[in-house]
Amino acid sequence: MEVIICEDNPKQLEEITSTIKNYSFMENNGINVALSTTDPLEVLEYAKENKVDCYFLDIDLNNDMTGIKLGSEIRKNDPLCSIIFVTTHSEMTYLTFMYKVAALDFIIKDDNEMLKERILSTLKEAFRRYSQIGKSEDTNKVHLKIGERTRNIDYKDIYFFESSVNLHKIILHLENEQIEFYGKLKDYENLDDNFYRCHKSFIVNKQHIAEVNSKEREILMTNGEICYASNRLIKGINNKNLQENR
Q1: Which residues is 56 bridged to in the sheet?
Q2: Burial class (CB in 10 A: 0-12, 13-18, 19+), 167
């Protein structure tokens, strides 16, 4: 789960960041602080290019953009992420409803130890929700449980699945990453119409195919990797129908 923290007070920013990082380290659950900043515009820029699952936002950021307006902009583009406000301004709670932010929680900064407890309890709830998202059939995400770590991966980010040489394992290929996990290829054949079983050992995402070499039975992916196809199954995918589907 990828987390962003936006807080205008550098000391409090460090405290919240350390609290989350220490918890993630102790639990080894894959929670990652992707960005810790005082600048709300940096948050929006990062979120444009990267998947973020959870936000901790101060309300008064000493900026033209308040935390609530920032949360509203985030929510417009991501209906599933968790947004948590951390602030001294309890009287501003009602604004989260006006801006339709649908915040997970509203944490008041008072006692420092109590603040840490609330941050952790809310983080755990955000992680529980994150863990459930990929299990839903209508979210277009693959849910992976790898040891104590949980990951939800968008269908569009998957390049292909491949049988592993390790028994009962398969390898999921992203643009610049490979994830090996326990599973069966047949469970991923019908994620949606973009995924095609081209070989007993490969399922490709047609959105990321660069070229099909029917003679060599090779499929070149847009990240430079190569998948292989059987004589029979390569007939179901060629350069012409790929262009028609784009």
Answers
A1: 5, 84
A2: exposed
Residue 105 tokens, joined: 């929680």
Which pLDDT tens digit goes with each residue over 59-113? 888 889 989 899 999 998 888 899 999 887 665 655 555 556 788 888 888 767 7
- The answer to whether the CB of 103 falls within 8 A of the CB of 76 is no
Q: Are 229 and 237 in contact (CB under 8 A)?
A: yes
- Unique residue bearing structure tokens 């054949």: 189
Q: What is the dihedral of CA 52, 120, 145, 2, to 10 degrees?
A: 10
Structure token pair of residue 12:
């409090």
DSSP string, 167-200: TTEEEEE-SS-EEEEE--GGGGTTSSTTEEEEET
Separation in Å, CA 159 to CA 84, 167, 220, 235: 33, 22, 11, 20
Nearest Cα neighbor of 126 from 86, 85, 82 is: 82
